[in-house]
């Protein structure tokens, strides 16, 4: 952990990601949150690669977004469980990001997601200057804010309209359209990393599930097996 900043240092009145703590000393609350973040990141990569052929975007997973100067400094950060920022470099001056510092980059995340581990009160807290909901809505300004509750197999998605979050209604598939990304967000019941639970996942605009790299490889393997079986039925050796 980085040591606390001397805020009176005239040379660094506005510290960057290399000078701010990358952790507040807490730990992930359960064994589901890390796989959930990986699932979201892995499956949306093909969409982001098409959207950003220049590679200019970053994804944070339980990483800090610094929004104000405080002492200690980590009190001025929120750490969404998953967020995506468009049109920013994945590295800063060749260094891996330790956090995302709004006063250095100014571009707000397009979407921030929180995974509820308690009763959801923290994620919906609108207390000025303290509550997560208020901070996202009034300061960090993600265009979309999602609250995912695995125990309820549900997700709430809000869109920032006129400076306030408006709850989005699901479409006919029960998904929530993230129009700028060309995707939908919803709940998928299935097995991932040896856990059979309701997972938060992406679909495309036609309602097709966005697959992970492993799922795409398995799909291709099954396709090849079907083709080989069809060839054998016709008396053709698929190995030739």
Question: Which shape, going by the Cα principal axes?
Answer: globular
CATH class of the largest domain, named: Alpha Beta
Structure summary, number of beta strands:
14
Uncertain parts: 1-12
Order of helices and strands: HEEEEEEEHEHEEEEEEH
CATH topology of the largest domain: tt1808, chain A
Main structural class: alpha+beta
Range of strand content: 25-35%
Report the average pLDDT across residues: 88
- Enumerate the strands of the largest sheet in spatial order, edge to edge or round the barrel: 1-4-8-9-10-11
Query: What level of helicity do the residues show?
Result: 10-25%
Distance between the termini: 58 Å
Radius of gyration: 21 Å
Summarize the structure.
The chain has 240 residues and is of the alpha+beta class. The protein has helices spanning 33-51, 102-105, 132-140, 213-233, and strands at 57-60, 65-66, 77-78, 82-86, 91-92, 95-96, 100-101, 111-115, 144-149, 154-161, 164-167, 176-178, 183-192, 195-204.
